[in-house]
């Protein structure tokens, strides 16, 4: 039997640490290269530099709208924020913000962003589209302390609350001009907007709003296992029982944020229950559902929880799926089903996912 002295043990320990560091660095470079590739291709295939706007797909067909709807920009602004988190000296947000401004509509009751470019046509205003922008702006404000981001979020908060009423006990509608459903996707993000504004301003009304919306979603749209149904119809009160990753993601993140703000462990326990149910329900046959951006929103919640309880199960399956997507669902440097047109929202979603995973590796 070989006996190791203390010097030999120290040597082997150092070797193992170097090997582990190299593995982490290699994985980190992996993500950086992917992010850079996707970002470069967005500005090659999806950007109209003459107008400062973006295209919905990499091939606009005759008869289709020339430019992107607002929704893909909700993904792109969050992706840009995560890129700046990794590279603070670079400016990824400005071109996206300049595009989003072109969706601004100041019609009553309060200004907000409409679904399509304002100068090209009048369109509906969706409460969730605006909330996603507010969430990204609040993340940018927390990172940069630039007041313009906070002011955008406050204005969007005012708009989203015009979509609240007491039919069905409360809740925010999905769409301003067709108030026939109240959705998890317009209330979950509403909780996050209110909570983040409370965290920044310490104004009690924001926390009150967050709890009002949080309790309503749980009472009307949460399934027994902890996941969330899509919406409740108005006025019939019929439940649309579709279950999507992003709805679970916003409520998972809301519970984590409520725990950090109140220190009430019931929110942490609920977050862990939701996270366990999410992996069980969504991760089938070693893959997540096909909507990358919905999954990016779930990842936000999983990472928030991981930072609290350090349970790797919250993120390991996302790492595996993100690697699978790069290997199996990439064509000519773009993400999406092979042989199909590629969508802007999918490129932005994967930038966000890779950037968030990269940020975890740097911790």
Summary, kept brief:
With 363 residues, the chain is mainly alpha-helical. It is built from twelve helices and nine strands.
Write up what this structure looks like.
- It is a single chain.
- Helix 5 (147-161) crosses helix 6 (184-201) and helix 8 packs antiparallel against helix 9 (265-282).
- The protein has twelve helices and nine strands.
- Helix content is 61%, strand content 7%.
- The two termini are 40 Å apart.
- It has a three-stranded antiparallel beta sheet. A two-stranded antiparallel ribbon has the order 1-2.
- It has 363 residues and is mainly α.
SSE order and pairing:
Elements: H1 6-45, E1 47-48, E2 53-54, H2 70-86, H3 93-100, E3 104-105, E4 112-113, H4 127-144, H5 147-161, E5 181-183, H6 184-201, H7 204-220, E6 229-233, E7 239-243, H8 245-262, H9 265-282, H10 292-309, H11 313-328, E8 330-331, E9 334-335, H12 344-361
Antiparallel strand pairs: 1-2, 3-4, 5-6, 6-7, 8-9
Helix pairs in contact: 1-12, 2-3, 2-4, 2-12, 4-5, 4-6, 5-6, 6-7, 6-8, 8-9, 8-10, 10-11, 10-12
